[in-house]
Design brief:
With 207 residues, this protein is mainly alpha-helical. Helix content is 79%, strand content 0%. It contains 11 helices and no strands. It starts with a helix and ends with a helix.
Length: 207
């Protein structure tokens, strides 16, 4: 009973440390706790998130890989693993997780968005855009696809019309009164696309 009480107090202490952003203290405590409970989902999630917050991508990937082995149907976690793999240029892992998503009917459009991100990040923007055009023909109102289309257009310096093709419809899918934070995020991306287009026009026409 005393050991169980001690573990409970430690969990509470770690939660408080995470809330306060004291990761240098919280992470070693969680690493130690995992030695006793190696398959505890909440612990794995918190440790992976802490590593991610600190920018320790390889460590976060290793922990989230352990978590996805336990919670294989967690679509959001798998998409997070894809994003981490892209940052690490771990294309094999990114495509592997994408293949799993594509087999899930519910996550199929997300798998197309993720696959496009992988190709764009690895330098094949043409292939990424082809995937998105095809996917949007089937899922024209899928927010993730639209945002990915806009993001890739913006990052690759495509014309303003290309970024607007993604961000414009996405903005309509997220009314301000339903999700103000996301609405403003998308609107900000659209403004950034306009700003970049204006700068490009100014560079080409200095007069």
């Amino acid at each position: 009973d005393s050991s169980r009480k001690g573990r409970k107090e430690q969990v509470v202490d770690v939660a408080a440390l995470l809330r306060s952003g004291d990761f240098d203290v919280a992470i070693p405590l969680m690493v130690e706790a995992l030695k006793e409970s190696p398959n505890q989902p909440e612990l794995l999630h918190n440790l992976g998130t802490a590593y991610l917050t600190q920018g320790k991508l390889a460590e976060a990937q290793a922990i989230f890989d352990r978590l996805i082995a336990i919670e294989a149907n967690d679509i959001r976690l798998r998409m997070r693993l894809i994003d981490i793999a892209i940052e690490l240029k771990d294309w094999a892992s990114a495509f592997r997780h994408c293949d799993v998503l594509e087999r899930e009917v519910e996550a199929k459009p997300d798998s197309f968005a993720c696959r496009a991100k992988i190709f764009a990040a690895s330098g094949d923007v043409k292939k990424a855009r082809a995937i998105l055009f095809s996917a949007l023909a089937e899922y024209p109102r899928h927010l993730g696809l639209l945002l990915t289309f806009g993001d890739i257009a913006l990052a690759s310096g495509a014309p303003i019309a290309a970024a607007s093709r993604g961000y414009g419809p996405a903005l309509k899918l997220v009314p301000r009164d339903q999700n103000q934070k996301l609405h403003e995020l998308i609107a900000g991306k659209l403004r950034e696309a306009v700003r970049m287009a204006d700068e490009d026009q100014g560079a080409r026409d200095p007069s």
